[in-house]
Amino acid sequence: MADLERRPDAEPGGTGADSGTELGGGTEPGAGSGAGGGPGTPTRNGPIFLVGCQRSGTTMLRLVLDSHSRVSCGPETRFLTDMRRIVGSDWERLARFGFTREDWLRRIADFFGGIHADYAHSRGKTRWADKTPLYALSIDFLAEVFPDAQFVHVIRDGRDVVVSHRKRFGYWSAVKCVVKWPRYIHTARAAGARLPAERYLELRYEDTVTDPEKAMRVLFEFLGEPWEAGVLDYQGKPHDVAGKYTVEADRRRAAARTDAAIYGSRVGTYRRELDPFLRVLVRIFSGSTLRELGYR
């Protein structure tokens, strides 16, 4: 299986907007996005979007990010997908207001970034991140709204994702997942290939739970944030998460017989928990994507 990947092969530079432009409340004046400073000095300050198919480990990564002294990553938002439609397929109707599309994008950035920035500041943080798996399908739009944003795409073995959907949402959700998972993968990777390497990172779930420190060091180096060992012990820090998540996380840790926040007992669960019918569906609809990603 491939290691941590910066991005799919693509032409350098991509087609993203100028990363020096700042929109919305997610950045601070004078905060650069290039390299510089010592190992403990932040080198970026733009928004962070954590995306990936549901049940791929995005919540775990959200809590890791939220445990950093500078980064705030709150609850899912989801509504930017509606904004994408409004300035996209619904644009003809919206244009009657007389504002340009750029005006609308700026207002969206101001509103959304302002909410996140205020939330971050209320928690003593200076940089915000958003974890909404659904935004894997809207990276192009988000990159346009926030030209200095970075995207972290969490990828997990689709067979384990199907198993997790069945356990969390029921059998029909697992059936639909065999089609949904490759769609998320292909859409996000295609968008990532159009971005500069410093704006898009692929992070394998399996790598994060096998060697958490190595994987998280790669993540925070990509984000331009100084390394803090405490991010690996996120369960000991306060987070705005639903009570049911805490209960479920405690149950899973008990089943895995570990006190660690990050553990790998759920890797390869499809081998014992994926029934014959779902195996056939995975082979038909997800097989080529699994092979493309190096999953055997």
TrEMBL record:
Top-level division of the source organism's lineage: Bacteria
Compositional bias (Basic and acidic residues): 1-10
Composition bias, Gly residues: 13-40
Span list, region Disordered: 1-48
Pfam families named among the record's database cross-references: Sulfotransfer_3
Keywords, comma-separated and alphabetical: Transferase
Cross-referenced InterPro entries: P-loop_NTPase, TPST-like
GO MF terms, alphabetically ordered: protein-tyrosine sulfotransferase activity
Gene3D superfamilies: P-loop containing nucleotide triphosphate hydrolases
Family annotation (SUPFAM superfamilies): P-loop containing nucleoside triphosphate hydrolases
Protein name per UniProt: Sulfotransferase family protein
Protein source organism: Micromonospora yangpuensis
Lineage: Bacteria, Bacillati, Actinomycetota, Actinomycetes, Micromonosporales
